[in-house]
User: Fold this.
Amino acid sequence: MLTIPQLAQIKGRDPYLYESLQQVVGAVNSLGRATGVDPAGSIAAPAPIGALSVAAADGIFDIALTDNSPVRRGIFYFAESDTTPAFIAPHVYFLGSSRNLRVSIGNQTLYWRAYSQYIGSVPSPPVAFGAPPVAVTGGGLAGPPLQPSSGSGTAGAQQGGSGFGVDQTLSIGNLL
Assistant:
């Protein structure tokens, strides 16, 4: 949150300036709370989601996240699937503020994990479906094979668990 350490000194010298600066600080901090960012820097990552549930049939995967932790406006959720439990090259699914996803990706056997993130924070630690991660088979007709992962946000390819990304910008080196 934005603070001005010299406000106490200003109050005695210029009460009108003090009052104006208090209003500006209050407005900036209110805007930060409403958008899920900290105007003075990065905010703490959200707590890990509570649980991830995955069901599949006929090539459709139905994902539900449980998040009972206290959250603020501006939280976003992500799910990832991969063919290995190590999530070497995960595919990222942006859920927005929803905690449910229904996606038709064919008869594949996939591992799933999910996490949350504020725009101004790093992602929460990912939570896998099962401990250790359990594969889920889509069943039904086979869809096309997954294309190589392109990452998400400022994270490059092959970088899961990044949501909006952990770097401020996406550099050419991150694409590889």
User: Anything to note?
Assistant: The helical segments are 7-13, 15-35. The longest strand covers residues 109-118.
